[in-house]
Specification:
Strand content: 15-25%
Order of helices and strands: HEEEHEHEEEHHEHEH
Oligomer: single chain
Structural class: alpha/beta
Number of strands: 9
Number of helices: 7
Shape: globular
CATH class: Alpha Beta
Distance between the termini: 47 Å
Number of domains: 1
């Protein structure tokens, strides 16, 4: 088969998508911006507090062209690729590049269990470091820290005081606040937000406190 025939025969790259929707970014440094969310299907982790378990299965196969076109039709500059765990699908990497090439400000929400070294450097990588109470602390890929750039972000979802002390020690051990912004967020229904804020103020910890704005607005409704 010659090169032209091979190119014709090769299937177009595609991804399994749970949903694509327009909402307000509820987390990270882009909080408040109108944002198109591209939620990929599937995740190898099972965090005990997961709020998107509906994305573990199902979904529809979409070509990269279809996804980029759907994003464009929704008309927002900011795009967040999320999951599930988006990097569990290898064609997530070319999608991220396509979205950047189209002029979007692109962020990636990833668990930190997958290699982030191949992600387009224009993407803001929001790396979620799993705490002991998440039930997935053993999945943290610590070598990812060496790939972070100043515009990236690290997130800790905390379930209680033990998680807070653990995260505080990790921040100090790895000098995380010298690498990029660090975000501490309370797990909904497990840690009172006001209590976490009080701990941060008492310790003068140079990290950003965050709530999930979209949940304040709409609760746990999918697609919001």
């Amino acid at each position: 088969m010659d090169d032209v025939a091979a190119a014709v025969a090769a299937p177009a790259p595609r991804l399994k998508i749970t949903e694509i929707f327009l909402s307000v970014q509820g987390e990270s440094s882009s909080v408040g911006w109108p944002t198109v969310f591209v939620r990929l299907t599937g995740c190898p982790l099972r965090c005990q507090y997961c709020d998107t378990a509906y994305a573990f299965h199902g979904g529809q196969w979409r070509s990269l062209d279809e996804i980029v076109d759907d994003v464009a039709r929704l008309g927002a500059r900011h795009v967040c690729v999320t999951g599930g765990e988006p990097l569990a699908q290898r064609n997530c990497l070319p999608l991220l590049t396509r979205l950047c090439d189209a002029g979007h400000r692109v962020s990636l929400e990833t668990s930190g269990a997958m290699d982030i070294s191949g992600v387009d450097p224009r993407v803001v990588r929001v790396l979620d470091i799993k705490t002991p109470a998440s039930a997935e602390v053993g999945r943290n890929r610590w070598e990812n820290l060496g790939h972070l750039q100043p515009h990236d972000e690290i997130k800790f979802v905390l379930c209680g005081r033990d998680d807070y002390e653990w995260a505080k020690a990790v921040v100090a051990e790895h000098g995380l606040t010298q690498r990029c912004d660090v975000l501490f967020s309370p797990s909904q229904g497990q840690l009172d937000a006001g209590r976490l804020a009080e701990w941060l103020l008492a310790d003068r910890l140079p990290v950003r406190f965050q709530l999930q704005l979209h949940k304040v607005l709409w609760g746990d409704s999918p697609g919001r």
